[in-house]
Design goal:
The longest helix has 53 residues, at 229-281. The protein has a six-stranded mixed beta sheet with strand order 6-7-8-3-9-10, with helices on both faces. It has a domain at 25-331: ABC transporter transmembrane region fold (Up-down Bundle). The chain contains 20 helices and ten strands. α7 (147-169) packs antiparallel against α8 and α10 (229-281) runs antiparallel to α11 (287-328). The protein has 611 residues and is an alpha/beta fold.
Length: 611
């Protein structure tokens, strides 16, 4: 359904549209809800005993001055009140706890579904937005199962029972009261159609503000490094101001509804007083009838107040359900109808056949690339920034599907392979060494939770993690902090390499795997990388071209095209683009050690003051 044509409010059409999702939530709990409704009916009938007793109290006891039935009447009222309290307690315990179980279940489902979505979904949605979808959007659903909805339905049933009694006492007063209430119901319907988009917009704004706040806190070093605290504070302040404006708009509408409901109570009350007094005076009803009518009219009006409260809650619940439906409408990676092939044990033959790819329609970033990587070989991608190297890595990892052309692994089209069976045999060491806020041990075992202690220690020795971890007081149980903040860049990279070693992949991706290391640290763990690459089909993106000299083939990528390919010495001999990149980098590395004025590239840096 187009966004602009979404139905609003809690209309019959809206309920019909959302009913499949609501029924999916209710179906496993239908027996529990049925029992809840039975308790609610007992509760409501017990609640009617007190107002019903007023007729007997006035006409049979007070007017006739006969105390014979006083104690039995008090006993009946007391018993009914105790029963009402007991059923209210049971309803709260039964339904409120079940509502919380539902929220927990929904959070699990949404998190699992989001975790299975393709990478492009994450590119289009901020982290804070996704967190909001998992944690906040399902909160309102409690009102579909919890005591709120049952209380509302109970109020309607009580109102119908009261209506029967009221008509029996005075049909004139009842009809006139209903006219006012129905008019108010029409106004409420229009009000809810106005409020629902406000709630939906609030969730969207809240997700945006949460997302930016998450980014700001995660990048606090960048913020402080550029003295941008005040700017970030301004961005956040503008965001929370938008939330406040949205809340104010909804509060104005809710307050108007509350005012209208209070006014209607006053109008109905005044009408009942006027007509009731005339009918008592005319002898058409007794004084007890009038007192009972005024007591029961409250049960007819009470749902009006409940509609304002529960209607707002249900509107919020439907807004959250809308956003949850948007998540579930996204197709997980492995539900692609093309992905039916279960990948067996991989040998490691990878072939690109005239592959083309675009992130955005009409903006192609890979233009007809083809190459073969035999099992156990090392293929390196080099080129300037933005040339397409990382895109090739993303395609090999199955994060994206080619726009045209074919990627084969052991002769099988990767676009037809179930990604869980493929990625179990894939290892990745990225430039950004992401670590979870846990221990060193937990981060390494993330790749293979069932690894033995000896396998774990061997991976740590190969990656040289033992050299720093064993010097910590807590050893491998040292907590690394959020994103590994308590470790140096080199230490984090070694943990990432140990994690990949423990995974024992058949295809290995090293994306700037040594970019966070100084030359000494890089040399220390190069043997670990050599061990990791041994016998595996490896794809490397390296910032330092000196680290890929031993690659079996080097592909020079520029503007999405392979402009050169070959081994290190072969490409140097061609004196083409690779030779240009290599010699320029070599010269820059040498000039880093030159003092100003000693020549080389350092002399070419202009003095800003002289400009």
């Amino acid at each position: 359904m187009p966004r602009g044509s979404e139905p609003t409010g809690i209309s019959a059409a809206r309920l019909k549209e959302l009913w499949p999702e609501i029924w999916e939530l209710v179906k496993p709990r239908r027996k529990l809800l049925a029992f809840g409704f039975v308790l609610m009916m007992v509760n409501r009938v017990a609640g009617l005993v007190l107002p019903a007793s007023t007729k007997f109290l006035v006409d049979d006891i007070l007017v006739k001055k006969d105390l014979t039935y006083l104690l039995p009447l008090i006993g009946a009222v007391a018993g009914a009140t105790i029963l009402q309290g007991a059923t209210s307690f049971s309803l709260t315990q039964l339904l409120s706890k079940e509502a919380q179980r539902l929220i927990t279940e929904m959070r699990r489902k949404v998190q699992v579904h989001i975790g299975r979505l393709p990478i492009h979904y994450y590119n289009a949605n901020k982290t804070g937005n996704l967190v909001s979808r998992i944690m906040s959007d399902v909160e309102g659903i409690r009102n579909l199962i919890g005591t709120g909805l049952v209380e509302f339905v109970g109020g309607l049933i009580t109102a119908m029972l009261a209506l029967v009694i009221l008509i029996g006492i005075s049909w004139r007063m009842t009809v006139l009261s209903l006219v006012f209430l129905l008019a108010f119901g029409v106004l409420l319907g229009k009000a809810f159609r106005y409020i629902r988009p406000i709630f939906k917009e609030r969730r969207r704004i809240f997700a945006e503000v949460s997302g930016r706040l998450t980014e700001s806190l995660s990048g606090v070093r960048v913020v402080k490094g550029f003295h941008a605290e005040s700017r970030e504070a301004g961005v956040f302040a503008a965001g929370v101001q938008r939330i406040q404006d949205n809340i104010f708009a909804s509060l104005t509408a809710i307050s108007a509804m509350s005012f209208a409901s209070t006014a209607i109570v006053g109008v109905v009350g005044g009408t009942v007083m006027y007509l009731g007094a005339r009918e008592v005076y005319a002898g058409e009803i007794t004084l007890g009838d009038f007192v009972t009518f005024t007591a029961f009219i409250a049960f007819l009006v009470a749902p009006v107040f409940q509609i304002v409260g529960i209607g707002t809650q249900l509107t919020e619940a439907f807004a959250g359900l809308d956003r949850t439906r948007e998540v579930f409408s996204e197709t997980p990676e492995d539900e692609d109808p093309r992905r039916t092939v279960e990948m067996p044990a991989i040998r490691g033959q990878v072939d690109f056949h005239d592959v083309m790819f675009s992130y955005d329609k009409g903006k192609r970033v890979i233009h007809g690339i083809g190459f073969s990587a035999p099992p156990g070989s090392v293929t390196a991608f080099v080129g300037s920034s933005g040339s397409g190297k990382s895109t090739l890595i993303n395609l090999i990892a199955g994060f994206y599907v080619p726009e045209s052309g074919l990627i084969e692994v052991d002769g099988v089209d990767l676009a037809t392979v179930r990604l869980d069976s493929y990625r179990r045999q894939l290892g990745v060491v990225l430039q950004d060494s992401f670590l979870f806020d846990g221990s060193i041990r937990e981060n390494i075992l993330f790749a293979h939770p069932g690894a033995t202690g000896e396998e774990f220690l061997q991976a740590c020795r190969i990656a040289r993690v033992d050299e720093f971890a064993e010097s910590f007081e807590e050893g491998y149980d040292t907590i690394v902090g959020e994103r590994g903040v308590k470790l140096s860049g080199g230490q984090k990279q070694r943990v990432s390499i140990a994690r990949a070693i423990l995974a024992d992949p058949r295809i290995l991706i090293l994306d700037e795997a040594t970019s966070s290391l100084d030359s000494e640290s890089e040399a220390m763990i190069q043997r670990g990388l050599d061990w990791l690459m041994r016998g595996r089909t490896t794809f490397v993106i390296a910032h330092r071209l000196s680290t890929i000299r031993r690659a079996d083939q080097i592909l020079v990528v520029e503007q999405g095209l392979v402009v050169e390919r070959g081994a290190h010495q072969e490409l140097l001999a061609k004196r083409g683009r690779y030779h240009e990149l290599y010699t320029r980098q070599h010269a820059l590395e040498e000039n880093l050690f030159l003092a100003p004025g000693e020549g080389g590239a350092a002399e070419e840096i202009p003095d800003r003051a002289a400009r």
